[in-house]
Write a structure and sequence with these properties.
Porin; 227 residues; single chain; mainly beta
């Protein structure tokens, strides 16, 4: 009987230590991706525990006009040429209310680390500029049609400039759209030696509606520093 009480005490002590260890990771804090401003992205995340091993992460992500691209090139991520409309991306703001689940922590000689799985739940507010006032690209007007003298079939190799261009790039109408984004992120949080700050490294897949296309899977690598 004495041994039974000793075993119960040992297991209870281990459970209390594990509970305390999880709570060391799951505390109210702030975090940001400090390298993202170099790519035109600024964000701030607020980590709020809801249970011993779960938390809500509320955040604001701002995507700025931080690039230079050739408008007269083919379709790309920032601008879209169509037969009835031209549209170019300006900036975006994303409101996040992600939900996180922590796993059992691991503690080595010098490192305290815990794994997590986060359900990504976000609303994207995107600003565009667009116009329906289009003109035909003069490059096509000057090209001979198949069967005409001087026609070269090699020019039609699939890498063609847009056929329809805006009448003016300086007279575009601002448009705001919203989109719901969701996905999953798996990663690890590592505490500093003093337990005050931490860093996170995670891999995420975000499903994002883009234009008239179906939801697209966007892989992301996130590195955050929290305090």
């Amino acid at each position: 009987m004495k041994r039974l009480f000793i075993l119960i005490f040992v297991f209870a002590f281990i459970g209390i230590r594990a509970q305390i260890a999880v709570e060391q990771f799951n505390q109210k804090s702030y975090a940001t991706n400090y390298y993202r401003p170099f790519t035109g992205i600024v964000d701030l995340n607020l980590h709020v525990p809801t249970t011993r091993s779960q938390a809500v992460i509320a955040g604001l992500h701002h995507y700025s006009f931080f690039y230079i691209y050739d408008r007269l090139n083919d379709d790309n991520f920032f601008n879209t040429y169509g037969s009835d409309r031209y549209r170019e991306w300006v900036m975006g703001n994303t409101l996040a209310a992600d939900y996180r689940f922590y796993f059992n922590p691991r503690q080595g000689r010098r490192v305290k680390r815990i794994g997590y799985l986060t359900y990504i739940n976000r609303l994207a507010i995107v600003q565009w500029r667009e116009t329906t006032d289009l003109v035909e690209n003069s490059w096509y007007i000057d090209q001979p049609e198949p069967g005409d003298p001087g026609y070269d079939p090699e020019w039609d190799d699939g890498f063609l400039p847009p056929r329809w261009l805006p009448n003016s790039y300086d007279n575009l109408t601002p448009v705001t759209t919203t989109a719901y984004r969701f996905g999953l992120e798996y990663g690890r949080r590592t505490l500093s030696l003093n337990g005050v700050s931490y860093r996170e490294l995670g891999i995420a897949v975000v499903l994002n509606p883009f234009g008239q296309m179906w939801y697209l899977a966007i892989p992301m690598v996130n590195y955050r520093v929290g305090f």
